[in-house]
Design the sequence.
């Protein structure tokens, strides 16, 4: 299988600063991958390398089977879309004029430019100047620009920064639509809440190196972080304490109607079976570690090994 | 070519939207009319003086104003887009850096050309009508030459503005550098040259001196416009030291064109090397 993006031991050094060290990352067609990390972790550097704006200091790098800084750069540029971080557009031009400008550069037909304005809900505001646009509208215009020419690869750098919850949801919905059409998406973010459902795999970067890579399930498994299980029902006080202790569970809280167990990753099913076998339990709720928890975990692990 | 044209059209539209063209046109027209009206104030009277006298005074004013306007128009073209984030975006598009710079230049050059032709042209027609010189072919030639050279002078400094914009890391620094360039070519260069001339006690011969003036595009413009006119002798200062008839006017226009190409090429080269 050929990868859309293939980075092999890619490093980038600026003077004495190592922005990226030995990054290995392969993105398959149709995959939506989230690049997560603090500011300065190397997310933007990775994106600029993929776009061929900067040259790698060492390592091999291919995008859609070609080198982004080679002879095929022009063909590649027709096939990808990019939304830079904290982007603002030409304030004096209207939304339509901005999209026309970029559309012409990418040789996209007028009909498609118009359709994109409609798709992103900008048709009504299209003839207003960008300076009157809200942050959410600007971001949608940015996305419209990135979608010009139906790109095979979409790179979004911090697309949700500064967006209100509704605008963020709209952005993710658009992303889900693209995912269904098989567009490969690389999305960088440090805003983690709500992103889980919209991405296939996560790459966690820290200080220029890859800390974790995989689906969220894989990361949960690798991290082996405890799982929170909650049960509701009616039971005599004291019954659960003895049963849980018999199972070797130490970390729990219980009263007459509520029970909460912090379970080890492996013991999850045993405890759930135990709870489900009891008719006194009315409701059960399992909370696996969130992406935030995983993110903090993989960053901490690194800090420990740094020390 | 499609890319260059797209960029230049956008730049032109942006300039029109900003009211740049309108503002510059009004400034040029007001200068021309004002100079024509008050030009003879020194001899104790006001009223419209003839177009040829006006062109001479206009040329000495244009040396200060046009470079400044051109630098202001274009100093932020690259560094400003970088601060917006649009430069990074443009670099991900199927357009080369040279195409971006060339497109911007054509757009800005067209903006300035339009203002120059409209501002000075309209004022010229008004003055000629008021002083009864509408039928003088020589005069229209002189005005045409003035407008063409003013346009070229503007283009030279647009090219310098790109150099500054590509070199500077921040918009404010670009503005500072643009002012330094203006200051150097418009004010310092002549003083420096005069100093060298006096200090060298004639070691620099009168034959070399006019060629030294070609090192400053503002002086080339001055040479082109003032030298030809009889009325110029009193105003032209340093240039009158140079033998006026040494250079044919059209040759001086070519020199101005070369002066546009040099800073533009250096800017294009630096732009290639700039890391986004």
Sequence:
């Amino acid at each position: 299988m050929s990868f859309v993006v293939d980075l092999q031991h890619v490093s980038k050094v600026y003077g004495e600063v190592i922005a990226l060290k030995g990054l290995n990352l392969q993105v398959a067609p149709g995959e939506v991958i989230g690049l997560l990390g603090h500011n300065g972790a190397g997310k933007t550097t990775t994106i600029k390398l993929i776009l061929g704006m900067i040259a790698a200091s060492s390592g091999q790098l291919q995008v859609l089977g070609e080198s982004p800084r080679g002879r095929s750069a022009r063909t590649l540029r027709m096939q990808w879309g990019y939304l830079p971080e904290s982007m603002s557009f030409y304030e004096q031009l209207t939304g339509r004029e901005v999209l026309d400008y970029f559309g012409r550069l990418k040789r996209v037909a007028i009909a498609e430019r118009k359709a994109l304005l409609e798709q992103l809900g900008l048709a009504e505001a299209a003839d207003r100047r960008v300076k009157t646009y809200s942050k959410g509208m600007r971001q949608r215009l940015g996305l419209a620009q990135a979608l010009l020419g139906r790109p095979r690869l979409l790179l979004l750098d911090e697309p949700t920064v500064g967006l209100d919850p509704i605008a963020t949801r709209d952005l993710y919905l658009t992303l889900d639509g693209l995912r269904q059409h098989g567009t490969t998406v690389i999305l960088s973010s440090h805003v983690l809440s709500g992103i889980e459902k919209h991405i296939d795999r996560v790459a966690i970067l820290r200080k220029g190196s890859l800390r974790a890579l995989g689906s969220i399930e894989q990361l949960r498994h690798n991290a082996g972080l405890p799982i929170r299980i909650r049960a509701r029902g009616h039971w005599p006080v004291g019954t659960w304490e003895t049963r849980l202790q018999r199972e070797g569970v130490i970390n729990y809280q219980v009263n007459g109607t509520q029970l909460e167990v912090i379970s080890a990753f492996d013991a999850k099913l045993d405890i759930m079976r135990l709870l489900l076998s009891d008719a006194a339990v009315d409701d059960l709720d399992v909370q696996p570690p969130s992406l935030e928890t995983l993110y903090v975990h993989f960053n901490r692990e690194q800090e420990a090994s740094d020390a | 070519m499609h890319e260059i044209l797209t960029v230049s059209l956008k730049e032109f539209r942006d300039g029109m939207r900003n009211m740049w063209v309108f503002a510059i046109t009004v400034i040029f027209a007001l200068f021309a009319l004002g100079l024509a009206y008050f030009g003879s104030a020194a001899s104790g009277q006001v009223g419209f003086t003839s177009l040829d006298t006006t062109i001479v005074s206009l040329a000495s004013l244009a040396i200060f104003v046009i470079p400044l306007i051109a630098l202001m128009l274009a100093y932020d073209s690259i560094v400003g887009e970088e601060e917006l984030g649009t430069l990074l975006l443009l670099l991900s598009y199927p357009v080369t850096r040279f195409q971006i710079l060339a497109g911007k230049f054509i757009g800005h050059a067209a903006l300035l050309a339009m203002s120059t032709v409209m501002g000075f042209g309209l004022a010229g027609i008004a003055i000629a009508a008021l002083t009864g010189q509408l039928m003088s072919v020589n005069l229209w030639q002189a005005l045409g030459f003035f407008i063409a050279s003013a346009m070229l002078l503007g283009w030279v400094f647009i090219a310098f503005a790109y150099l500054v914009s590509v070199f500077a890391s921040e918009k404010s620094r670009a503005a500072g550098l643009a002012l330094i360039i203006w200051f150097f070519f418009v004010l310092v260069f002549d003083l420096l040259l005069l100093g060298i001339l006096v200090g060298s006690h004639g070691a620099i011969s009168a034959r070399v001196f006019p060629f030294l003036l070609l090192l400053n595009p503002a002086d080339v413009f001055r040479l082109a416009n003032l030298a030809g006119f009889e009325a110029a002798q009193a105003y032209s200062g340093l240039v009158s030291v140079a033998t006026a008839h040494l250079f044919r006017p059209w040759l001086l226009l070519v020199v101005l064109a070369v002066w546009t190409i040099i800073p533009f090429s250096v800017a294009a080269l630096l732009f290639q090397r700039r890391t986004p």
Q: What stands out?
A: The CA atoms of residues 68 and 182 of chain B lie 6 Å apart.
